[in-house]
Structure formats: C-alpha cells, structure tokens
# Entry
Amino acid sequence: MTTIPLSIIRFPTLNHLPSNPLSNSPNFLLNCSSIHPSKLQIQLGFVVIKSRISRISYSNEADPLDSVEVLRVPDHWLEPSRALQESEWLRVTLHKWLDDEYCPEPTNVDISRVAANSYHQSLLQKTSDVGDILLKMVRELESISYQESFHGAFSSANAAVNLIAERIEND
# Structure
C-alpha cells in the first residue's frame, strides 16, 4: 500500500470572478504527493473561508510549505439524519451553482448527484476531514463523462468543497 502524505498550503492566486461568492476568501492548495518521487503529484486548489471551521494545525518551522491545516465538518453532521440533510443540500446547491456559474447543462445533474452521494457516504463513514472528502469526491466524479461539459472532476469537487466550507461558516 502506498502512503500519500497530505498537506494544505496557501497559494497566492485563484480566478477571482465577480460572480464567485467566495472570491474574497483565502486560497489553499491541497498537495498530495506520493512517497515515491517517480509518481505523479496531484494538486487540488480550493477556497477556505476564515471562520469557526474546526482546524488542527501542524507546523514545521524549517519550511512553511510543510505546515498542514486540517479542516473538518462539524461532528453533528456525521449523524445519519444530518448527513442525509447535508448531502441533499449539497446536491441542490451545487446544481444551482453550476447552472449559474457556467450554464445549465445535463451534466450538472450528474455532477451534483455524484458529489452529493460521495459526500453522504463520507459523512456516514464518519469522515470529517475536508481534504479526505475532497479526494474521495474527485475519484467518484471521475466516473462522469465531461466530454460535452465546461466542467471536470477536479473543478466540480473544488466547487462542492467551496460550498461545504461556506456552509460550515454559516452553521
């Protein structure tokens, strides 16, 4: 089994479109690199809102890029009835966001359904780490065909995580 260390590091730029409700939020990059240097390195960007989000920080003073910030959904969202409520909220909200941000298209229905199902399963499995939720969601969103779409698995998962972070802020 390959171990993949995860770290969330701040990066300076993200597309700040006026229609993006989270455009004033700090930007973070989820850097997932295999312990084998020859393996592909995956980088996923997502926005995190300064908030009451539960955070656990680990810091290596030698290199600021080695610091890790773990973002978590609230524990009460892990209860089955609340997990269902949160996943349904994500399905509806993500679908609307995709339609508004890009354009209405049939793929938006599939994206929001798969993302919500992935989120629901993560919450039922007591996965509260937003990075873990993001990575699982990306894997599951890769099952969708984006051939005639403006989206991809990574951009869709990032949008979902942005909405989840905003929801955490308002909880």
